[in-house]
């Protein structure tokens, strides 16, 4: 795919955010004693794509399948980096160093700690040059049946740390509360936070997200995604309502007049497709309609949107992005090159005919292998698209036209955060790595 940038986009380009010259360029190492050996032998590895997985099965499909791209194997180079997960202590790269992979470990703490080692650690600094690297999070997730299904692959604009709230057990909450979750500094559910930690919402480069979406769909249609009969059988349950007919009036929300309201889960009943919708991060592996709807609301309110955009839930995305944001400020990575790709391996809430407990624990949904396969089916097209359009498009980078970064405006840019308090803590200049800005004034 040829991607030419309209002039208006170039004019909007945030010089200190989007262009590779903002970050130190590759060390050419002219005084190296190894004259005569190939440059690659002593230069830092400058990956074009770094694939980030959370656990073994997510990584395995990339390790097994990458050779089919004809760019070598991820086992050509194994790089030990102090600070990575004890389970996954090495990053892996093809011999040319174009494509690399690391496994971070599961949940927010593992993801943040491993990412810090991978991007900011001392070993990483001597091994890698990440100035122009694309970061592709490739993992499985819980999927919202209002927007997707088992095996669907979603590319996010927002990652929301939705469980970062006060929580009352529902049995202790006031009778008029719809959920036990309330944002910090507020006294009722459904209100935006009054107090922020900074990681609540991370916004990605939407133009890159859309380019990745086109690549993953192979230009158009639903793309090359696999389907599975077992997953199809489970998703069909979302087309059957709680009185067992196919009218699918959800939970009888229409007050008993069956079949009069449209099925809110139509998307769940369709075959898998590539989607554009947002990712929730929560350490807590929640399941069920009420928690899922509560975090759906949290995502809508915190990102200042009017529609449901939350479609995937996992335990790492906000953590990965927060480290990339800090690495950007430290001039070690480019936040505008981050892609969050998640594939639905299980629904976040049950079909109308089942309880949350049955759905979570007692019944197989048959989505896991399908989701893992589809991270490759969609993700490999993103990777090969980046590699084959490197010189013209992806090497120079796709400038963001939306706000990117956290709730504080830490990366600066012409646009203030369009969510959260809308307060740009750094006055559009972004945070400085040299101590000239600090958070004490906030
Ligand atoms: C890298 O690690 C893999 C998996 O442990 C191994 O099979 C491979 O031989 C290693 N590559 C090198 C170059 O040592
Ligand atoms: C719940 O009721 C109390 C009064 O009993 C009221 O002050 C509060 O605003 C209500 N909260 C919601 C979320 O409706
Ligand atoms: C992508 O589409 C092209 C035709 O436009 C086709 O030749 C190719 O096989 C497709 N790739 C995949 C992975 O579906
Ligand atoms: C989600 O928000 C809607 C609209 O404000 C509200 O009616 C519903 O009760 C909320 N759901 C939960 C679980 O909080
Ligand atoms: C996943 O891909 C593997 C390897 O191609 C295949 O054997 C398996 O049947 C696929 N499973 C699903 C559910 O797509
Ligand atoms: C949220 O959206 C509303 C309506 O579009 C807008 O008036 C408001 O300024 C937005 N808030 C922020 C923080 O941008």
Automatic annotation (TrEMBL):
GO CC, alphabetical: endoplasmic reticulum
Signal sequence coordinates: 1-20
A Pfam short name: NUP
Keywords: Signal
Domain of life: Eukaryota
Designated name of the protein: Purine nucleoside permease
Organism: Apiospora kogelbergensis
Organism ancestry: Eukaryota, Fungi, Dikarya, Ascomycota, Pezizomycotina
Region spans: Disordered: 244-263
A GO BP annotation: transmembrane transport
């Amino acid at each position: 795919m040829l991607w030419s940038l309209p002039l208006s986009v170039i004019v909007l380009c945030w010089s200190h955010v989007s262009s590779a010259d903002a970050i130190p360029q590759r060390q050419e190492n002219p005084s190296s004693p190894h004259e005569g050996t190939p440059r690659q032998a002593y230069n830092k590895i400058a990956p074009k794509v770094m694939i980030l997985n959370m656990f073994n099965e997510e990584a395995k499909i990339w390790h097994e399948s990458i050779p089919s791209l004809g760019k070598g194997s991820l086992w050509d180079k194994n790089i030990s980096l102090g600070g990575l997960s004890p389970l996954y202590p090495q990053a892996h790269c093809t011999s040319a160093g174009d494509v690399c992979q690391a496994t971070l470990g599961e949940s927010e703490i593992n993801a943040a700690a491993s990412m810090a080692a991978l991007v900011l650690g001392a070993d990483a600094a001597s091994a890698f040059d990440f100035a122009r690297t694309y970061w592709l999070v490739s993992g499985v997730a819980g999927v919202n049946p209002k927007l997707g299904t088992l095996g669907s692959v979603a590319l996010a604009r927002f990652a929301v740390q939705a469980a970062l709230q006060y929580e009352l057990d529902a049995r202790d909450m006031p009778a008029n509360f719809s959920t036990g979750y309330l944002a910090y500094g507020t006294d009722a559910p459904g209100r935006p936070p009054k107090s922020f930690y900074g990681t609540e919402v991370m916004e990605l480069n939407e133009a890159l997200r859309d380019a990745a979406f086109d690549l993953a769909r192979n230009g158009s249609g639903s793309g090359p995604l696999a389907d599975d009969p077992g997953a199809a059988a489970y998703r069909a349950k979302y087309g059957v309502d709680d009185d067992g007919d196919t009218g699918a009036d959800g939970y009888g929300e229409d007050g008993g007049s069956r079949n009069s309201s449209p099925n809110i889960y139509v998307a769940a009943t369709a075959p898998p497709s590539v989607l554009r919708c947002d990712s929730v991060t929560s350490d807590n592996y929640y399941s069920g309609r009420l928690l899922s709807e509560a975090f759906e609301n949290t995502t809508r309110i915190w990102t200042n949107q009017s529609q449901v955009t939350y479609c995937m839930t996992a335990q790492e995305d906000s953590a990965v992005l927060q480290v990339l944001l800090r690495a950007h400020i430290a001039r070690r990575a480019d936040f505008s090159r981050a892609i969050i790709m998640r594939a639905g391996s299980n629904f976040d809430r049950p079909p109308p005919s089942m309880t949350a407990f049955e759905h979570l624990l007692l019944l197989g949904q048959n989505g896991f292998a399908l989701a893992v396969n589809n991270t490759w089916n969609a993700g490999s097209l993103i990777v090969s698209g980046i590699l084959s359009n490197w010189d013209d498009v992806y090497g120079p980078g796709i400038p963001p036209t939306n706000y990117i970064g956290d709730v504080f405006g830490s990366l600066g840019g012409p646009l203030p955060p369009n969510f959260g308090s809308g307060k740009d803590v750094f006055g559009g200049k972004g945070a400085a790595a040299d101590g000239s800005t600090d958070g004490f004034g906030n």
